[in-house]
Amino acid sequence: GNSVTQMEGPVTLSEEAFLTINCTYTATGYPSLFWYVQYPGEGLQLLLKATKADDKGSNKGFEATYRKETTSFHLEKGSVQVSDSAVYFCALSVNTNAGKSTFGDGTTLTVKP
Amino acid sequence: DTAVSQTPKYLVTQMGNDKSIKCEQNLGHDTMYWYKQDSKKFLKIMFSYNNKELIINETVPNRFSPKSPDKAHLNLHINSLELGDSAVYFCASSQAGSGNTIYFGEGSWLTVV
Predict the structure, then answer these.
(1) How far is A59 from chain B (nearest CA, A)?
(2) In chain A, whose CA is at the least distance from the CA of B46?
């Protein structure tokens, strides 16, 4: 079956620190990979995605590269802000799975001023 | 204009009651979902409908019954509410296909007392 494993939280950083949240996956077929972000009191929203190997998704200073050889999609940001405090979910979807996406357990990030 | 809207946003009710959560999407998507998020932020898919047809029905108590009157609506009815049903319920939608983004509503916070 498909699965997503992401770095356990919570993660606490100071403003302007470098962020990495690790995400690895197992999948049958060729998945598309996603990072979703959930700000406090809100629903999840897409942060970035990549649909094939070696693609890099980027948005709002965040980046993640689809690495097929290591089955990874790690999220990075060079300098976090207080406003980046949120829960981050790594996810995958595969065409063969009747539209079902698989989400990781979420990583809570808190950025302190 | 809200893409995926669900009502009510907050719901406090007593054990044993029956309640419904309504969801509508105006994105023209053919697939809609219900997800449950617990207090640890774990996200679990409950149901998925494609063009009004149920395609994913995870192991969910049969007290939970989804209903899709048309492609743009997916409602969730819960009978005989239990304390363990307290959670945030997210409606979502997407176009079928692995590379497509899932759009989430803002969530319905259900508290059973």
Answers:
(1) 14
(2) A100
